[in-house]
Design a protein that fits this description.
Belongs to the carnitine/choline acetyltransferase family. GO terms for molecular function: acyltransferase activity. It holds the Pfam family Carn_acyltransf. The protein is α+β, with helices and mostly antiparallel strands. The two termini are about 50 Å apart.
Length: about 700
């Protein structure tokens, strides 16, 4: 019960003050749309996905809801929302946390970072220590509230998600999960060869405790220690694999771990870590292998955020999606990638400034002297420690069977990549088209070209212009998109095909703008359904929530999201339904990257069809604009004059009715205080002069 209370209290927690949260009090609440407007949008969204007969039945269900239960539920929702930061937030969080399947492939998305622009720094230890150090600067700015707030085209965005980005763990119970924030976290956890290590990175005064070189020395000591463990023993103590189990099974095994004093302390160290760093021993040779490794790898912890660095220096981020959306993590990734470049630039020009204005790099020896001057009670040990486990028989068997089930899960899924380099944003805007809408219609054309039909498609629209805003669902299949794909694959003239494309793009762009204003249908109807479930547990649901139209909308066959930044090479996520596709894409200036996943449907063939469409539509557009052919000079001038259109700020979310996390102000983690010391837990590693 205490955990549930902490969970609810976290929803009411509102970060404020400083530069970071200076706009929070100005942000409006997410609007609750008029019921009749939502129902009209709902019918419009499902009509292209239904037969005439099915749609008539759905119209009857909607009419019944509007005349009977709907207005009463709407009134209850308006009353419920009066003292809430967001009317959808609690329902959204609960749906994520009640999710009982493994979080691997189902909830955790991934980013693949671009390589460090200085090739000599693409060494595993150097790259990892650089990313860790930049992350500490980001966290320091966040703690000091000096991190610049997000602003989109002059409009402030909600920054509340950043309070859940670090030091937060998802804890399983027999009845769903809860989010446990480590409000006093000062350490990180590093994984190497399935073994876990930890060391403190902030001192008792909240200052960065290590230099980049000292972090690198710790990582080398960890790799050296992990290499000594016999191969036959590595899998036996790979406790991290337990977190990939179904939630109830992981809850049972977690209770077994906590029954042992050593394991309980070790678990506390991991739960309260700021973030996890995975030093993978693999060296992916293809972009597909790299993407798969970042998405699901071999073992995963469901900690809030993980930095993954492969042996060859390739790096990425895997994050638990409950509490944060892709836009929040994208800001973090963009900042730390920029900081690593600026730090290198500073070695060339000492006047180069950091993006973290408040961060003052201090000599670590001087810091330690200052700490020691306050007495031995505050002495500080920077050495890493191996986290040790008492492998009882139930835990040993749990690890063994969890690894088997995880291997099954990984083998049931595939990831394929298309890095399309023929054109990108410049060409699309030169054609006077919205880049995001253009790519969404490309998905529709590719799927129709392969399967001969249009199916439920999801794209998130960011709603962070509102207090505690997350996303609204853009349903990309419209009457205009269906008309476009049917026209495109007909014998119609190219002119007619392009005109139908333009109408579909206009429809999608208008839909995106509505959703960004909180005027979609999915979130509103989902909140009404959740409210009904709370009030009428044993009563038959209104017909609208059992109708085939609601089921069609909830079965996202093509889950997509645009999450781009020059710091990223790729990003992706698993399919949200067993027979669907998950497609992450990044629209770059002169290219578009796609990472598509499915449970072994024709993923590669879908991307090949997509590539062919992109090339064919380019030829059509060029012939229309330049009937006499296009010269190199015209191409350059067109790129220089390109005026980017509104892309609806589409950022990552996975298209399912899952929700988000909460931050507790209690300061407790799973029954123990986060202020409890962790520095003495585990075997202390020795550093060498050469590290």
């Amino acid at each position: 019960m205490a955990n549930v209370k902490a969970h609810k209290n976290a929803l009411n927690f509102e970060p404020s003050g400083g530069e970071t949260f200076r706009y929070q009090e100005q942000l409006p609440k997410l609007p609750i749309p008029e019921l009749k407007d939502t129902l009209a949008r709902y019918l419009t969204s499902i009509q292209p996905l239904q037969s005439v007969e099915e749609h008539e039945r759905s119209k009857v269900a909607v009419k019944d809801f509007l005349e009977n239960d709907g207005p009463k539920l709407q009134s209850k929702l308006l009353t419920y929302a009066t003292d809430k930061s967001s009317y959808i937030e609690e329902f959204w969080y609960d749906s994520y946390l009640q999710h009982s399947d493994p979080v691997v492939l189902n909830l955790n998305p991934f980013f693949v970072l671009e390589d460090d622009p200085t090739p000599l720094r693409n060494d595993q230890v150097i790259r990892a220590s650089s990313l860790i150090y930049s992350t500490l600067k980001f966290i320091d700015a966040l703690h000091d509230k000096t991190l610049e707030p997000d602003v989109f085209r002059g409009t402030p965005l909600c920054m509340s998600q950043f309070s859940r980005l670090f030091g937060t763990a998802r804890v399983p119970t027999d009845n769903g999960c809860y989010m446990a924030p480590g409000n006093e976290s000062r350490h990180i956890v590093v994984m190497a060869h399935s073994q876990s290590y930890h060391f403190e990175v902030f001192d008792e005064f909240g200052e960065t405790a290590l230099t980049e070189k000292e972090i690198a020395a710790n990582l080398r000591a960890i790799l050296r220690d992990a290499a000594r463990i016999p191969v036959s023993d590595i899998a036996k103590t790979a406790i991290g694999v337990l977190t990939t189990e179904k939630r109830r099974n992981w809850a049972r095994l977690r209770a077994e771990l906590k029954s042992d004093p050593t394991n309980r302390q070790s678990l506390k160290v991991i739960d309260s870590a700021l973030f996890i760093v995975c030093l993978d021993h693999v060296e992916p040779t293809t972009i597909e292998d790299l993407s798969s490794n970042m998405l699901c790898g071999t073992y995963r912890l469901d900690q809030g955020l993980q930095i993954i660095v492969c042996k060859n220096g390739s790096a990425g981020i895997n994050f638990e999606h409950t509490g944060v959306d892709g836009h929040t993590v994208l800001r973090y990734v963009s900042d730390i990638y920029t900081d690593t470049i600026l730090r290198f630039a500073k070695t060339i020009n000492s006047q180069t400034k950091s993006i973290f204005h408040s961060h003052k790099q201090k000599d670590s020896a001087a810091n330690r002297a200052r700490r020691d001057s306050f007495g031995t009670g505050l002495s500080f040990d920077i050495n890493p420690r191996r986290i040790e486990w008492n492998m009882t028989e139930p835990i040993t068997l749990g690890v063994r069977y969890a690894e088997t089930r995880l291997s099954d899960l990984i083998l049931q899924n595939e990831v394929r990549v298309l890095e399309f380099n023929n054109y990108g944003k410049y060409f699309i805007t030169d054609m006077k088209m919205s880049p995001d809408a253009f790519v969404q219609m490309a998905f529709q054309a590719a799927y129709y070209g392969l399967y001969g039909k249009s199916e439920c498609t999801y794209e998130p629209a960011m709603t962070k212009t509102f207090l505690h805003g997350r996303t609204e669902a853009i349903r990309s299949v419209t009457n205009a998109s269906v008309n476009f794909v049917e026209t495109y694959y007909s014998k119609a003239a190219d002119h007619d095909k392009l005109e139908s494309l333009r109408k579909a793009l206009k429809s999608h762009t208008n839909l995106t703008r509505q959703c960004a204003q909180g005027l979609g249908q999915d979130r509103h109807l989902f909140a009404l359904e959740c409210l009904w479930n709370r009030m009428n547990k044993d009563t038959k649901k209104p017909l609208i929530f059992t109708d085939s139209g609601w089921k069609v909308l909830g079965h996202t066959m093509i889950s997509t999201s645009n999450c781009g930044n020059p710091a990223l090479r790729l990003f992706g996520f698993g399919p949200t339904v067993s027979d669907g596709f998950g497609i992450g894409y990044i629209i770059k200036e002169d290219g578009i990257s796609f990472a598509a996943s499915s449970k072994h449907r024709q993923t590669e063939r879908l991307l090949k069809t997509l590539e062919k469409y992109l090339l064919d539509i380019q030829i059509m557009l060029q012939k229309e604009k330049y009937p006499g052919g296009i010269s190199q000079r015209q191409r350059i001038l067109a790129m220089e004059n390109a005026d980017e259109l509104n892309n609806g700020y589409s950022y990552f979310d996975n298209g399912e009715n899952f929700g988000s996390d909460k931050e507790s102000s209690s300061g407790s983690i799973d029954g123990y205080l986060s202020r409890s010391p962790t520095r003495k837990v585990g075997k202390r590693l020795m550093l060498r002069e050469t590290d």
